Amino acid sequence: MSGWTGRFEAELVRLGVQPGRARQLTDETAQQAAECSAEPDHLFGPAHLYARHLLSELKTPSLPLEQTTGPVRLRLAGVGKRYRRRTVFDHVDLTVRSGEVAAIVGANGCGKSTLLRICAGLTRPSHGTVQRVRRVGFVPQDAGTAGWLTADEHFTLFGAAAGMAPRRARSTGEHLASRLAWRPGGEQLTQHLSGGTRQKLNLVLGELHSPDLLLLDEPYQGFDQGTYLDFWQQVRAWRDAGRAIVVVTHLLHDLQHVDQVFDLGARA
Question: Which of 136, 146, 165, 228 places its Cα 20 to 30 Å from the Cα of 8?
């Protein structure tokens, strides 16, 4: 363990974080720096200051009701998921309102993607209740597209499911793609697209029908830095338009873009 990460972990423990959780956060931080090809001190600054900043972000509570006047788009109460004898997570309470961005964070394997699928209605919880609006857009971490179809064919197919005429679905899809600096090729099959471009297609399909609630599972996989910034600019536009957004992320610096942080690792 390098000097910076050692000081970072030690500061987390000094601030009251359990040693196991401190090690998880340290590993995630080191992974993030490696993905950015940067030394932690250059990316995050002094270890002790970043430890305090991170804890303040993770402890950000849901906004009080008197400060959030938008309608509730998603509400989880006492939600848990169990597979046979293994409890994935338990006692999850989460409320996301119109005009809010919520981040779900936690160590690998704590059930972030499973929780998001429960939010979308694709996986049933073992117990608890889920209330959501009807118009939901779901963007998975991978899959979600058919390799033998073109982008325009995806727009037509997904648009039909939402009651959109083919021409409108295609023009809407092309317009949304342009916001991510992407112009879909007419006859290019999805299987021939790069991983980052397929993820752009997933994002467009999730937004195609103008949902009130967007559920995003690490949606920036394969993005270059410019597209990553375009993505968060689009998230801000969704929030300003009154949509509710829930995003699963392992990139800790993403937390500067959100209104509330839900640490699922603390409930796994």
Answer: 228
Q: What are the b/e assignments for 154-169, b being 16+ CB within 10 Å? A: bbbebbeeeebeeeeb
pTM of the shown model: 0.74
pLDDT tens sequence across 157-203: 999 988 889 999 999 999 888 888 888 877 888 888 888 888 889 99
One DSSP character per residue, 4-43 reads HHHHHHHHHHHTT--HHHHHHHHHHHHHHHHHTTS-HHHH
Report the greatest alpha carbon distance in the chain.
59
Mean pLDDT, the chain, as a whole number?
A: 84
At 182 the three-state DSSP class reads coil
Whole-angstrom Cα distance, residue 44 to residue 200? Answer: 28
Q: Structural domain boundaries of the chain?
A: 3-58
The whole-angstrom separation of Cα 214 and Cα 238 is 9
Torsion of CA 155, 124, 68, 176, to 10 degrees: -10
Question: CA geometry: angle at 223 spanning 222 and 228, to 5°?
Answer: 145
Which helix H or strand E contains 159, and what residues bound it?
Answer: helix 151-161
| Whether residue 63 has pLDDT greater than 70 | no
